[in-house]
Write the structure tokens for this entry.
Amino acid sequence: MTLYLAIGGGGDVVMAAALAGDEAVGQIPWERYVVDPTPGPVPPDALREVAKAGEGLYLATPRSYVERGGRRFKTQGMCVAEVLNKSVYLVDPYRRPSELAKTLASFGRIIGVDVGGDVLGVGCEESLGSPLADAYGLAVLARLAEMGAETELWVMSPGADGELDREYVLQRAATAARAGGLIGLVGLARGEVEVLSRLVETCVTEASAVAVRAFRGEHGVSTLRGGLRRVKVDLCAAAGLRLDPKTILGMNKAARLIYEKDAPIDAAADLLLAEGIPTELHLEKLLAQGLDPRAAVEELRKKKHC
């Protein structure tokens, strides 16, 4: 069985589910602040109506939900389960990458899915606001590869999340290709877009919706996150890159630090901050303290120095 694992948190699992078809789908259960204002990924003790599927692995069904911070909500993986009437795996990122990889190695093949391409960054680019989930996910994929598991990293819709510019993402991909890290290309087909369309109508995701708009013929520039980010909407958003995780690990400083220290995601955040790489966890903590989003972003920008 192949597991399509959304490594970036948020709505990446929507794209992973569309690509997976009848194969297994999984996610790092970390929601955008508008869904879950409690900082950090959802911990296992906040999951409801899920079944344990291994150490650090849980299986969500259409009935599953989260109780956290006085709120009840569904992760986007749970939303996928509800829309498609399909079970979805949730991983526990509060475990070390090596521990999680040991569990996931039971799948025959693991494909990490990142929408936008933040995983191709160094980790501290000026426009990059959420390097942690992708970096942690890449560290897990690298550990899996180290164990001999068949792994790939699929970067879908380059630049579509509005963080790293598409041209920069493609430049980084070219660097990976020169190092022998490009496995191939992948594109969305009509049936996959039909599934994706159903999901974006219900689940919370903007980046994956860009791919649907592009496939339907939209061409131009659009905005995300209330106008804070600009993205290109064209047929490139309906395509992706198949990459070797170990090659990308060598390019991503944040992921390499997490891999080398074998750090769970909360410890990884502090590790990265000490290296001049503030993360989405630090942003969420500032927002929880009452800072205005723009002020919080500017505060973290001062801490970037790698």
